[in-house]
Design goal:
alpha/beta; UDP-n-acetylglucosamine1-carboxyvinyl-transferase, Chain; 2 domains; 4-stranded mixed β-sheet; 14 helices; binds uridine-diphosphate-N-acetylglucosamine; binds phosphoenolpyruvate
């Protein structure tokens, strides 16, 4: 297993190129299941989750070929409709094969994802929506077994909670369903808009993506696509926080500033000077220490839970007291005890992390517990005195393309070693 060894680094300076978004690419690659025609996806990040997705699609019989940051998929003759536990347990987003398989082939067996480090993460909304569209679903021996006679039927679905994954699964299912599907209380994340744009390019009619009501007019068949994945707003935010914490000046290229307004707003409140172009964002801390910020996570367009851990690190070293409240996942503060081991003064109070600020961090061996927790520890390592060893970085490799090379390009002292 690999670990990252990070030494206290100078303030980060320079340009960094942002990759395609993991959370957009995962559902986008699943759209290939909706058509027998070839699909090409570009700006696909080189990540462990993308490898898992292509392995999963190959297991179903999809023809896969890859070039750097490009994936070609053809689902003209499937050999299986089963997503096995072995793959689903390593990547929860595997559940996104359910909607497309069911709508195109009338059946699907998908291992139940189960809980994960950050929370229980049930899939009841995915199943309830598909049942409303006419599917019969049972859970047997840890597998969701779903089938439908004929086509799924368009339905008016109101979701009790805002769920990104359920919205995506139901949008893909609805694209081949008979008639119109209306999704109410839908997620509004930029990745939903990206998926809607791809489905539209494939011949479905999708309106309202980016609002809480999405209309999808299903069609009998969809065509292939040539689709470029949206820039990763969470990777962008992570580099901006790293720059802010180090007192540096960093420009993120190939970014999508309009997708991370809530994060940019908090960085401005922390004292950063932010300048944006059409596809770039520059953060300049002018050598200052950030001011602590108050943050509450909530569905888009509010502050994203996937940026919460990085802001906990920012608040640790900032001036003043900061409170960060997590409202999406019930167990997403696993980075806090690790940051405390580095000297951070943070108290956990119910679902809030309260930091006193001005902690002087010291390097320590720390363990990554999930993807964004890992990112928060890497950022802490850059400013901690001495050396920080971050273990279990396979979490980080799920979602950050070449993170150590990109950080080194900004002047960080970071290297990958065998544990
Ligand atoms: C691959 C991907 O895009 N992952 C993102 C996606 O995850 P994911 O799509 O899994 O997250 P959801 O939006 O579905 O989850 C939001 C909340 O709803 C709950 N819930 C969800 C579905 C359901 O059927 N029942 C239910 O109760 C979850 O437990 C959670 O508390 O959105 C999350 C919230 O922005 C992000 O943190 C993840 O990075
Ligand atoms: C929680 C995340 O991803 P996933 O839903 O794939 O676990 C994330 O990207 O921070």
């Amino acid at each position: 297993m690999d670990k990252l060894v990070i030494k206290k680094s100078p303030a980060l300076h320079g340009d960094v190129r942002i990759s395609g978004a993991k959370n957009a690419a995962l559902p986008l690659l699943m759209t290939a299941l909706l058509t027998e025609q070839p699909c090409r996806y570009t700006n696909v990040p080189a990540l462990r989750d993308i490898n898992t997705t292509t392995a999963l699609l190959e297991e179903l019989g999809v023809k896969v070929s890859r070039e750097p940051n490009e994936v070609y998929l053809t689902a003209d003759a499937l050999t299986s409709v089963t997503a096995s536990y072995e793959l689903v347990k390593t990547m929860r987003a595997s559940i996104l094969v359910l909607g497309p398989l069911l709508s195109r082939f009338g059946k699907a067996n998908v291992s139940l994802p189960g809980g994960c480090a950050i929370g229980a993460r049930p899939v009841n909304l995915h199943l309830a929506g598909l049942e409303q569209m006419g599917a019969t679903i049972e859970v047997d021996e840890g597998y969701i077994r779903a089938h439908v006679d004929g086509r799924l039927q368009g339905a008016h679905i109101f979701m009790d909670m805002v769920s990104v994954g359920a919205t995506e699964n139901l949008m893909m299912a609805a694209a081949l369903a008979e008639g119109e599907t209306i999704l109410e209380n839908a997620a509004r994340e930029p990745e939903i808009v990206d998926l809607a744009n791809c489905l539209t390019a494939m011949g479905a009619t999708v309106t309202g993506a980016g609002t809480d009501t999405i209309h999808i007019h299903g069609v009998e068949t969809l065509q292939g696509c040539d689709y470029r994945v949206l820039p990763d707003r969470i990777e962008t935010g992570t580099f901006l926080v790293a720059a802010a914490v180090s007192g540096g000046k960093v420009r993120c290229l190939d970014a999508a500033p309009e997708t991370l307004e809530a994060v940019l707003n908090k960085l401005r409140q922390a004292g950063a000077k932010i300048t944006c172009g059409k596809d770039w964002i520059e953060l300049d801390m002018e050598g200052r220490k950030p001011a602590a910020v108050q943050v509450k996570t909530a569905p888009h367009p509010a502050f994203p839970t996937d940026m919460q851990a990085q802001f906990v690190t920012l608040n640790c070293i900032a001036e003043g007291t900061g409170v960060i409240t997590e409202t999406i996942f019930e167990n997403r503060f696993m980075h806090v005890p690790e940051l405390q081991r580095m000297g951070a003064e943070i108290a956990l109070e119910a679902n809030s992390a309260v930091s006193k600020g001005s902690s002087s961090l010291k390097g320590a061996p720390v363990m990554a517990t999930d993807l964004r927790a890992s990112a928060s520890l890497v950022i802490a390592g850059l400013i901690a005195e001495g050396e920080t060893h971050v273990t279990r970085i396979y979490h980080l490799d799920r979602g950050y393309e070449s993170i150590e090379e990109k950080l080194r390009g900004l002047g960080a002292d970071i290297r990958r070693e065998k544990e």
